[in-house]
Structures are given as C-alpha cells and as structure tokens.
Amino acid sequence: MRYRTKPSIVEAFQWGRATIAPTWLTQRMVEPSDPYDWLGCLSAGQCTMRDGDLYLAGTSGVKVAKPGDWIVQGAQGEVFVLDPMTFEAGFEAV
After folding, report:
1. Beta partners for 71?
2. 63, 73, 45, 24: which is closest to 54 by C-alpha?
3. What is the rounded CA–CA span in Å between residue 78 and residue 94?
4. Are the C-beta atoms of residues 58 and 79 closer than 8 Å to each other?
5. Tens of pLDDT along 67-83?
6. Do residues 81 and 56 touch, judged by C-beta distance below 8 A?
7. pTM > 0.90
8. Tally of domains within the chain
9. Does the residue 4 lie in any domain?
10. Under 8 Å CB-to-CB from 58, ≥6 apart: which residues?
C-alpha cells in the first residue's frame, strides 16, 4: 500500500542563521547564568556548542545541528534536526 503524510504545521528555525532562538526552544531551557548563553541550555547541560555545531539532549539521545540545519518542533512538541535538503523537500513556509 502507498501512504501520504498528513499535513501538519510545525515551528522551525535554521541553526547558524537565526540570531534569536525561538521561544518554543528557549522555554524548554532554564534561565542562563551566562548572558552570552543565548539558548539558555548551555548552562543547564541540556545542550552544548562545539565548532559551531549545537548538540541537543533529547529523549531519543543527542541530536546534532550543524550550521544550516533546521531545528524543528513537531506537532506533539518533539524537537528534531533536519539537514537543509530534507527540510526543503518536506516543508514549505505558511
């Protein structure tokens, strides 16, 4: 049988291109103790940055967002990382 994905609206931003983290991500993080810790998650140990990559701790393990990757919040609140080609093939702006 063939299936088509159900349409849904998600929140997303492109890592390394956005200057301000979206509220849906920062609300998951604790207040930063370091004013340069703009995501708030670095001081909480929920994510780290290394060489421009963002490492997010999630329920399914560590997710790595490289510059240009998209960080997406799904319909159920889950957060996942997609490379630009996968994101562009599956999503369009609304």
Report:
1. 13, 81
2. 63
3. 20
4. yes
5. 999 988 888 877 888 99
6. yes
7. no
8. 1
9. no
10. 78, 79
Domain that holds residue 84: 11-90
Confirm whether 3 is domain-assigned. no
* Residue 44, CA atoms < 13 Å, CB-side half-sphere: 16
Asked if residue 81 is part of any domain, the answer here is yes
Q: If we measure between CA atoms, which residue out of 18, 4, 1, 15 comes closest to residue 71?
A: 15
> Has residue 18 got a pLDDT over 80?
no
d(CA 33, CA 78): 25
What is the tens place of the pLDDT at every residue in 41-53? 655 556 667 777 8
Asked whether residue 5 is assigned to any structural domain, the reply reads no
Higher-pLDDT residue of 24 and 39 is 24
